[in-house]
Design brief:
There is one protein chain. This protein is of the alpha/beta class. Among the domains are: 89 residues, Gyrase A, domain 2, CATH 3.30.1360; 64 residues, no CATH class; 117 residues, Orthogonal Bundle (Isoleucyl-tRNA Synthetase, Domain 1), CATH 1.10.730. It is 49% helix and 13% strand. The strands form four sheets. The chain has a five-stranded parallel β-sheet, with helices on both faces. It has a four-stranded antiparallel β-sheet with strand order 1-2-4-3. Strand 13 and strand 14 form a beta hairpin. Helix 6 packs across helix 21 and helix 8 packs across helix 9. The protein is globular, with a radius of gyration of 29 Å. The mean pLDDT is 93. One of its GO terms (molecular function) is ATP binding. It is found in: Cytoplasm. Monomer.
């Protein structure tokens, strides 16, 4: 148990022992690191959160809590009350230094939690139509989805990462017809591109390759030819998307095909379930879902008057399948243009007999690329919209992944390409990686001077102010991970990484690691190795490398 968690449990025990409120009524106790270090190592607002329940003045409550705390068991050196009722704690620095041993023992698992009842979570992200290249919006979606998956897994959840392949519907029919048009063009026949066709270079390449390898396809019946081109087109586009995602360090556990919903009969099953539950009705020669029963602004059509499904129905069947697979929580990451889709999809969960709250939807707001202070809309290489591949080529995977999760998903993001390329402390990813490389350099020097990492070396002699602040930052990591998981706030990890790197740089500038005092040197070597391991673990959560040299 780390020092912060130990303190939290001591406060909880003190509240229970005080008799201020009924045990079952005690709210969650929060322990934070004060911004002003003069206020101590940790602080809690527990007294203020208990005011209404205890019906007492918060300072009076604070005094009661303090009188019931076991200071020795929690390694508390001093306790004070500040302001309206904040309780501040100064800890035994020897105990604070013990976090070093915890990190060195757990190594790559430092910060990882184990939940007694693992919640099964399915995260669906990216899910771009297989009709063209991934763009900047998909890059943000992919970065956030992968990072959120990593965080939840590290926090103890049972996580599945899934990509929904939209390989059915009008857009795929248009893809097949577009390939057909390019196929016949390559055979010397007039181009007959459909009105909503795809004019990308890759579609022309597919058509030309098919014409060269399979000229006999022109003699097939039109329906058979279109079906073949549909399958080949989706296969070609998905192969390209998967290659780009793999380059971007995005991996999925499942690739779920929309077509499989039709083949398995799950669309019919989902429709039957909603009908049996009383939420489906007929009107105006169409079949409707009563989504207004679940806070949607109007009911939604499932089957149009011509007998074809709306795009909503296969999406409902897909979520029906997710539920049937036994997931406790469904998380979808959607683009900014899907905001109006939230209520109807959550309503469909209700119609399926599930709690709409089982589904969480995060909307990815828009990303604007800036270069030399001006917006970049077109790729210099192709003269078309900037793609994920372009972004990787421009700044590399590390910078792209780091920058894409630096801000909350519900805010628009200005992506400064010049900053992402710069090798300066202003570039947050460079700043963090440089901290890791600097630690590795010091450890190499230590080894050359005969100092190995000795886990038996005492660390209670660490008293330097910047060193203790650095240790407090290391101590925070498990709670940062848990908080990011519970709030689905991926930006908290790069924020933490920056703060940890800053704390290390401050320590490095204030204190010499390899000094004349051999005992202190050994303690500092252990400390910076613990910092290095924590930094590596945090960078791994966002799939950014931790270089040993720069």
């Amino acid at each position: 148990m780390n020092l912060k968690q130990q303190l939290k449990e001591a406060i909880e025990a003190a509240v229970k022992n005080s008799g201020l409120v009924e045990t079952e009524s005690i709210p969650e106790i929060k322990v934070e690191v004060p911004k002003d270090k003069n206020n101590g190592d940790f602080s809690t607002n527990a007294a203020m959160t208990l005011t209404k329940l205890a019906r007492k003045n918060p300072r009076e409550i604070a005094e009661t809590i303090i009188s019931n705390i076991d200071k020795d068991a929690a390694s508390i050196k001093e306790i004070s009350i500040a302001g309206p009722g904040f309780i501040n704690f100064k800890m035994d620095t020897a105990e604070l230094a013990n976090v070093i041993y915890t990190v060195l023992d757990k190594k790559e698992n430092y910060g990882r939690s184990t939940l007694e009842n693992k919640e099964k979570v399915l995260i669906e992200f990216v899910s771009a139509n297989p009709t063209g290249d991934l763009h900047i919006g998909h890059a943000r979606n992919a970065s956030v989805g992968a990072t959120l998956s990593n965080i939840l897994d590290f926090a103890g959840y049972d996580v599945t990462r899934e990509y929904y392949i939209n390989d059915a519907g009008n857009q795929i029919n248009n893809l097949a017809k577009s390939i057909e048009a390019r196929y016949f063009e390559a055979l010397g026949e007039p181009l007959n591109m459909p009105e909503d066709g795809y004019n990308g270079k890759d579609i022309k390449v597919i058509g030309e390759e098919l014409a060269a390898d399979h000229p006999e396809y022109k003699d097939l019946a039109e329906a058979e030819r279109i079906a073949k081109f549909r399958d080949l087109g989706v296969e070609y586009e998905m192969r390209k998307l998967k290659a780009d995602l793999e380059e971007f360090r995005i991996n999925f556990d499942n690739w779920f095909s929309e077509t499989s919903l039709y083949e398995s009969g799950e669309i019919d099953e989902a429709m039957k379930t909603m009908t049996d539950n009383g939420y489906v009705y007929s009107a105006d020669d169409a079949t409707w879902l009563r989504t207004t029963d679940f806070k949607d602004d109007k009911d939604r059509v499932l089957v149009k008057s011509d007998g074809t499904y709306t795009y909503l129905m296969p999406d409902i069947a897909y979520h029906f399948d997710k539920v049937e697979r036994g997931y406790d929580k469904l998380i979808n990451l959607f683009g900014a243009d899907h905001h109006g889709y939230i209520n109807r999809l959550k309503a469909s969960l209700g119609a399926l007999g599930q709690s709409p709250d089982k589904l969480e939807i995060q909307i990815m707001q828009l990303v604007r690329l800036l270069e030399n202070g001006e917006e970049v809309k077109m790729s210099k290489r192709t003269g078309k919209a900037v793609t994920l591949r372009d972004l990787i080529d421009m700044i590399g995977v590390d910078a792209a992944r780091y920058f894409m999760i630096m801000r909350s998903t519900d805010t628009h993001f200005d992506f400064d390409l010049d900053l992402a390329r710069s090798e300066s402390s202003d570039n947050p990813v460079y700043y963090a990686q440089y901290a890791h490389a600097r630690i590795c350099s010091i450890l190499r020097q230590a080894k050359e001077n005969g100092f190995e990492i000795d886990v038996e070396a005492p660390v209670d002699i660490i008293e330097n102010e910047q060193a203790l602040e650095l240790l407090k930052k290391v101590l925070e990591f498990p709670n940062i991970v848990r908080g990011a998981a519970e709030s689905r706030a991926t930006q908290r990890i790069p924020n933490y990484i920056h703060d940890l790197a800053a704390s290390f740089h401050k320590f490095y500038n204030a204190e010499k690691v390899l000094g004349e005092d051999a005992d202190k040197t050994r303690a500092y070597i252990l400390m910076i190795e613990a910092v290095r391991q924590t930094l590596e673990n945090a960078l791994k959560l966002i799939d950014v490398s931790a270089p040993e040299k720069m």
